[in-house]
Amino acid sequence: MQIFLVGMMGSGKTTVGKILAKTLNIPFLRYRSNYIKGRRNDHFRNF
């Protein structure tokens, strides 16, 4: 089972994700696409 939480920074995705993972007995993984691609850019700062 895979569940993806998407939302603005500070909206509680990590908190809800950890609670869901514990409740459903599945691993919790925090995924950030800008770190995975090897770039540490904040895309919003480019505007």
Mean pLDDT: 79
Overall geometry comes to globular
Whole-angstrom Rg: 13 Å
Distance between the termini: 36 Å
The count of DSSP E runs of length 2 or more, i.e. the number of strands, is 0
Beta-strand residue fraction? under 5%
**Class by alpha and beta content:** mainly alpha
State the helicity in percent bands.
25-40%
How many helices? The count is 2
The parts where pLDDT drops under 50 for at least 5 residues are none
What's the helix-strand series?
HH
Specify the biggest β-sheet. Answer: none
In words, what does this structure look like?
The chain is globular and about 25 Å long. It has a domain at 11-37. The chain has helices at 13-24, 33-36. It is built from two helices and no strands. It is mainly α and 47 residues long. The longest helix has 12 residues, at 13-24.
